[in-house]
User: Fold these one by one.
Assistant:
Number 1:
Amino acid sequence: MAAHPATETIAAIATAPGTGGIGIIRISGPDALALLRAVFVPRTLRSHFTSHTLYYGTIVDRQGRMLDEALAVYMLAPHTYTREDVVELHCHGSYLVLQAILRTVIAWGCRLAEPGEFTKRAFLAGRIDLTRAEAVIDLLQAQTEAGARLAANQLQGQLFDRLEAVRQRLIGFLALLEVAIDFPDDDVEIFDTTLAATQLQTGVIAPLEQLIALAEQGRIVREGVKVVIAGRPNVGKSSLLNALLREERALVTPVPGTTRDTVEERIDIHGIPVHLVDTAGIRRHEDAVEALGIERARRKLAEADLVLFVVDASAGMEPRDRELYETVREKRHLVVLNKCDLVAAGQVQALAGTFAGATVVTISARQGEGIEALQEAVYQILIAGSGFTDQIDCAPNTRHRAVLVRSVEACQRFGRAMATGAPVDLLAVEVQTALDELGDITGLTTPDEVLDAVFSQFCIGK
Ligand SMILES: Nc1nc2c(ncn2[C@@H]2O[C@H](COP(=O)(O)OP(=O)(O)OP(=O)(O)O)[C@@H](O)[C@H]2O)c(=O)[nH]1
Ligand SMILES: [Mg+2]
């Protein structure tokens, strides 16, 4: 990767907006030290700042008026976040004061950093690859402990190392193919296609497919799952949402059609974020507002990872329930028989028996019975559906997944071409394609627009 020496010095407030104990201004680039000298007056006057050492002093504006007391550190390249000279000013956490200091730094001659620009410089300088840069975003945005752990692993290079191992094998193929191209008349077969086919399957395709499978699990750990509560009006959907949340979040009344809009809340089941959606009861004869709510309910159903199909056990399956169940049954779903406090156990069991092949849970949302068993069933069905384990150590994101799929496709074309005895230069083309795709993940060959899309997800100061 070509180094991109940055000529401009950039600065930003690196801590979150709002009042905090301390607030940090980060400066990176060739003028960092000059800017430190301009705005910072160490308590003991000195002409030299030792790298990676903390100094106590005051920050002053262009007129020499004190703005804040601060600790300052100067870090000489290349042992810094960006591999450029970096200065950090650790000030008091007043956002107003931090902004005044930042204005002063900029007035002395640098510019405000763009979102993610510090991390982008670290990437462009070759200190981190793109998977590690993305791990920084994931770590900042992690919503669960498991998500943070995955991001930390990726920052340590887990994903990069796995990809690198595969890449090296592809490079091995390519090297042999190049020799075979150069010596077309050689008697000995330089490129052993039988051996290569085996190595391709076990050393390249299998590990890549494993990463693709991990991507789905990673999505669940990072973003959680969407669980939609659906059913005809009055079966107790909102009561179920409240029971799962353990609070009176949604309105519950005996009047069918109470919930007009969708209600969304988040709970955690065994560390997985679960986004619960309570929907308007779906029925035919409705007013305009309710119709909008029902339309929204249908859309939410389409997006759901799991549907909780709620039935009023005291009423049994009515034609309207059946109609709705026809659309639900094709999706990953659980049947929830509610209001079991109103009916005899035998009757509930008979009703449960009519749902062949589906998982049925019986509850009383009003009395809070069966709620834990339902949570457990939700967890189990999500595990069964995705081979999920929260013990995974590495999880490609959606961008990686798309690239992995394309790379596997190129490998499969390579495999087929070998099987049909295609000429070596054609084989080399497919291997090169597979390699280029993988290069997109680590940032080796990533086009600028992809880089821009990745780094624009950052906040300013990171
Ligand atoms: N006995 C009993 N009543 C329940 C239970 N769950 C809900 N109900 C009652 O059923 C009625 C409807 O409950 P809701 O939770 O509003 O039902 P809903 O499915 O959200 O209804 P819509 O929003 O109109 O679609 C209320 O009077 C609840 O108190 C239960 O487990 N047992
Ligand atoms: Mg409701």
Number 2:
Amino acid sequence: MNNFKKKIKRILRRILGRPEPPMRKAPDRLPDDVDAAVRKNGLETDGFIRVVESDMDFDGCYLTAWTALDNKGIYFILGDEKVTKKRGNKKIKSEYELREIRSYPLSDFDSLKCEQYVSTGRLIAEKDGDDIGLIKFSLNFLGGYDELCKAFNSLKTGEPMPQSSEKPNGGVCPKCKRPYPPGRSSCPKCDKNGSTVKRLFSFFGGYKLQMALIVTAILISTAMNMAMPQISTKTLFDDVLSKVGSTPAQQLLVTLGYLIGAVVGMKLLGLIMTVSFQFLMGSIMPRVIYDIKVKIFAAMQRLSVGFYSSKQTGSLMERVTRDSNNIYWFFVDGLPYVITNVITVVGVLIIMFVMSWKLALLCCAAAPIFLVLLVFGGRFFRTLHHRSWARNARLTSMVSDNINGQRIIKAFSKEDEELDRFDAVSSDLYKADLKLNNSEATLFPVLTILLSMLAVVMLTFGGLMVANGEMTVGTLLNFTVYLTMLVGPLDFLSWVSNWWARCVDSAQRVFEIVDAEPEIVEKEHPIEIGEVRGDIEISKLEFEYEPAQPVIKNLDLKVNAGQMLGIVGKTGAGKTTIANLIARLYDPKAGCVKIDGVDVRDLPLDTIRKNVGLVSQDIYLFIGTIADNIRYAKPDATMDEIIAAAKAASAHDFIMKLPDAYETRVGAGGHDLSGGERQRISIARTIIQNPRILILDEATAAMDTETERNIQYSLTKLMQGRTTVAIAHRLSTLRDADMLAVISEGEVVEYGSYAELLKKRGEFYKLYKIQADALKAVGIID
Ligand SMILES: Nc1ncnc2c1ncn2[C@@H]1O[C@H](COP(=O)(O)OP(=O)(O)OP(=O)(O)O)[C@@H](O)[C@H]1O
Ligand SMILES: [Mg+2]
């Protein structure tokens, strides 16, 4: 049944074009249940080098398959995973039902490769030039099979086995033996809600005294509320009103006075306690939320660039703002009332049974009707609330999209279409809200009518008991009051579980960031190289953003200290990726980047950040003044240094024309600068950093020819004595490069000096010719 559900989900995902879940990477052992089933069949699993899970057999039929490799052969383990025990929706014990194992000795195939189709992949074996189709799989398993192919091929050729991208320690869940999803350090499947809740409450650890006071205040205020009918109803009727005429008026007045005093006192005490716990909770929560936000933000600073572009992280902003607010509101507005309401329900039920167990049983008999209404009504309203929320979120993103895209909307005069788009989304929201309000307006009167009917039945029975002398009038009235006291808390508790689920869900998302491990970490004992000379050597470099989609393939490059290397190539060739790998914003999949002969992964991160200056293609200016943005790399830079850097970057003149010169505010909400102006500020920022290695990624692309010429002069001065890697589309800017590399699809296809490459009449010449012809066509050169 579980397998059937999986299949349906996969098929639906494909039909709807939804992304497949995150890729799994190959560990080197099978999960316990599969391992046991395989061993029972006589296959030894200890020698496995690579193991990949997948979801289809050789014909593309869905099942749970494992492909394993050892020194002798390759094995396809085909079977079904059956869940033997379930708790809620969570499977807690699974058993692997083996269908068959297909074994092929290594000698059967020459090499293995993966083929990628629209939504599936296939493992292909090559033998004497022929292709043999092996197992099929959904595309999300491609990464694992790609690693398996590499391991197989290196076994065949006798080359050293490539390292599995799976981290050797801590990458696999100790419970289910499955690898953690990328970027996670815990297993979301085995993670219990309980541990999240425990961690959430651990944030309150520093406020034990305040928490104890809050719980005491809640208990007292609830007790006051519950005791109130006892005095205001029962005692009033039985000891005062029913005795009018039989007891002297003065004595009754004294009792009445005591009663009023007690009621006022109790109300006052209850009120003070309520205000106190609300005040205390309100004063702790902002601090707890502050701690949580600082934790998330600190974790975000620790994480590598790759984490931010990874699709599964979703919107990080939401986690810092909305998720922590969800937690905030539950604790301030929800938790105290959960405690109050639970105590009220339990307390009232006990009081009712003590007063009259017969009437209490009668009420309990009617309780299922109310519970069913509240639970199903709650679920129904939750769906309606969610629909309204989702449509509201859609409307918000539509409005934000519209505001950000105003220039394009005006340029294409699409105002009317935008209005229609807004109208459609907005009317969806209106319909959802209307249905929600109408339904609420129906359910609550129904509940009130049912409650009144129960009260009538109870009064009838109660009346009979009063007539028989089994109960006083005061007790009966008291009973009615207590009954109505149950409705509010039961209603609250029926929907608060949803709120709690949302809070735990938010907490899980928050902890996901806090627990995420940065991909780029400094070695425990990095190699200190002192003063950096600036030699760069790239050898056999391989890199991919997405598994099995190589961006850099076996790339070798060398730049001697103080020299300039120009990199050219078509868009998407991998130029920026090379820059990112030199600056160690990412780590390569294979091969290495060396600075002064030391692998960048062995250097202290600080050495790299200080000595590698990157003028990036995507320029980002922080909210602040221009001076702040220039001194970003060196916060203690003097104003003279800032001006000197700006002059060197040809930025001084335009900065002086701005309303507040260097104090002009830029970034979001600040002064708008042109692309070229922003580039010059970012060059000044790098100049002030004074790095030994300068990487210019399209540093002058957004400038006019004259500014470019000016800045080229400053850049030439800046490059003196530094190693420079300059990436440019405009070939004229690379005339002075000592060496040029033409990159195509992640590989160096040509290498040599400007003149040599032109003479060679190859790829570089082609690029040169295209640009020269284009410039001739617009009359810029003859
Ligand atoms: N963060 C990312 N995640 C996934 N793929 C990426 C990412 N960044 C780049 N790519 C892909 O990697 C390939 C190389 O990109 P890169 O930015 O290195 O190209 P480039 O040569 O600098 O191009 P351009 O000249 O347009 O700047 C492209 O196909 C691109 O789509
Ligand atoms: Mg680029």
Number 3:
Amino acid sequence: MTAGWDQGAAEFARWARQLWQPLAVPLIEAARLSPGDRVFDACCGTGASALLAAQAVGADGQVDAVDASAGMIDQAKSAAVPEQLDFRVADALTWPGSGYHAVLCGFGIFFLGDQSAALASLADRLAPGGRIALSVWQGRPFDALTRLVLAACAAEGAGVGGPSAEAKNIGELNSPSKLTDFLRGAGLREVAVAAVRHRVPLTPDSAWSFVHSSLLRSALPADPAALARVKARLAGSLGGVELQADALIGSARR
Ligand SMILES: C[S@@+](CC[C@H](N)C(=O)[O-])C[C@H]1O[C@@H](n2cnc3c(N)ncnc32)[C@H](O)[C@@H]1O
């Protein structure tokens, strides 16, 4: 799984401005950070939320931002990193830090196996009264583009097998009521969930770039000629499809 993120890391970073940074803004607002806070950012990717958190906590604060993919962390470190922000390659579930004022997890909980166990592990890192903020996808993320990509791949005999464990996890948290129940079920209090509508117009080039930045890349055929045909087929079928990236931001207090 990490290999998939490593391969897509450079392309993922290219989506920061249009996708990951705008969606990190409400996540950071929900965390209600203060100057001097200590923050754990689990599954930090290329650092969209960690950088905003570092600004919010200031030079007296500390942000430990952890991702299992070395490629993602390399991308994160390629930008200017303030001193209070520490990017590390590590598994979010075994990271030893604790006593944080806030824990962030932006679109990462799906990749942590049993999501209830993962939430319990993340919440355990909080000091009493600390706040957790996580973002998940609302509805069926990237649905229209995914269908077109899979149709273009199917014509080459390529594609994905059955739904992945991650896709199943995404479906378990993709509505306000599911996310509310999830947070309450972990014994957290002051649970709040906000919906964020986020759409990005797609061109043939940007759609192809998004596929390569995401785990959808695993559906593509390896043969270069087949890959070129998939690209052409996708470009021809794209029409006015936009990237559907509506999110839910959940927050709660320990
Ligand atoms: C969709 S990206 C989210 C990136 C970032 N939070 C953002 O919003 O821009 C999911 C990230 O989870 C990371 N990841 C998956 N499993 C992980 C684990 N066990 N521990 C830490 N990171 C993990 C992947 O490497 C990937 O960078």
Number 4:
Amino acid sequence: MSSKYLPVENPTKSFWLTAEEEEFSTYRSSPELPSEADTIVIGSGYAGTTFTYFLLKEQGINPSSVLMLEARNVCSGATARNGGHLKPDLYYAHEKFSAKYGAKGAAEIINFEHAHLEAMKELIEKEEIECDFVLTRACDVHLHPKSVNAAISNYKSMIKNPYVTCKKDVQIKFGEEAKIISKVEGSPVCLTYTAGHLWPYKLMVAILKKNIEKGMQLQTNTPVLSTAKLADGRYLVKTNRGEIICKNLVIATNAYTASVEPKFEGKIVPIKGICSHITSSDPNLKTPHLTNTYGIRYGGADGDYLINRPDGSVIVGGAKRHIFPFKQLFYGVVDDSTLIPNTKEYFNNYMNDRFYTWKGFPEVADYVWSGILGWFSWSWYASCFALC
Ligand SMILES: Cc1cc2nc3c(=O)[nH]c(=O)nc-3n(C[C@H](O)[C@H](O)[C@H](O)COP(=O)(O)OP(=O)(O)OC[C@H]3O[C@@H](n4cnc5c(N)ncnc54)[C@H](O)[C@@H]3O)c2cc1C
């Protein structure tokens, strides 16, 4: 057990968590923990929640034998603190992936990412879930010559890959057209392709409620402190509220995985990311609505991402240039109760500074929050920035 990797108390409040219902956020199926379950799922984010959704559809599964354990309130990890962007990477990593996995392998990753959009749409429509889901197009803007060249070169290599089935979805535009489509003055090139955005917390809560209606058990504010495999093949799961024995154990703890399984220390590294919600500072003025979602690359991996919400506000994440100098404050860190120096200021006047359709519009970043991502080694992370 490594308690230093457990989620912390009092996380920053994300815009998404304004939909939190006090009663459900601390839901417990029973006052006491059960002593046994067939399957224990640790974590109530995208991974744990969607896993249980599909598990309960399996033949012969007794929903009440499935128990989800969550360290904090319902879905309070990265899923409730992200950018709400459903964005496949259809080209930018193609050369890297091809070099590593060959053309077939690179195509498999790209096709898999692309297939998620349809799968998400299908799930949301089938279950009739209100989560502000919008299917749209992503617009990637590249503002640094290195990033522009990398984008063009990756695009060209991707369209030559015979195994990429979604290549026709990607369109590249240059010069004036790129500026008009992207609405970013300094953009010599832009690439657009199908993407989506949604309110991730609402989607997860809706699925969890459906699972609970079927009988699934959920215990919030119950951090798992350790797990052990017993001689008979079952697992002993120790929590701060007692011990449970189960036949199947699913660990969906993302950045916090070393809190449950110490062997993942240094393999899945928690890093702190920053996001914001930007809207009109004048309640009588409607924002100049953008039609695309965005990836804005200043160079290499030093980029921001942005979604345009159906109410006209935007969610912007990134600020990596401000984060990067503070390695000790974001790398290997699970503390999402604070921000990183200068990141709040980074979002001041953000839209005015980038989009000419927002010039002169009164904007305010009314929410800025942090969240913890599961990441890799420092050398990998730093190599992305070496591109900048
Ligand atoms: C700032 C930020 C912006 C992002 N932007 C985007 C984006 O726009 N688009 C996108 O696709 N992705 C984005 N991501 C990444 C995305 O949010 C994650 O990949 C995704 O949410 C991971 O889901 P998960 O279920 O694996 O993890 P999480 O949502 O983190 O869920 C893990 C859960 O496990 C619980 N847990 C952890 N340890 C324990 C324990 N010991 N006992 C019990 N429970 C435990 C946690 O409390 C948490 O609720 C972003 C992430 C961040 C932080």
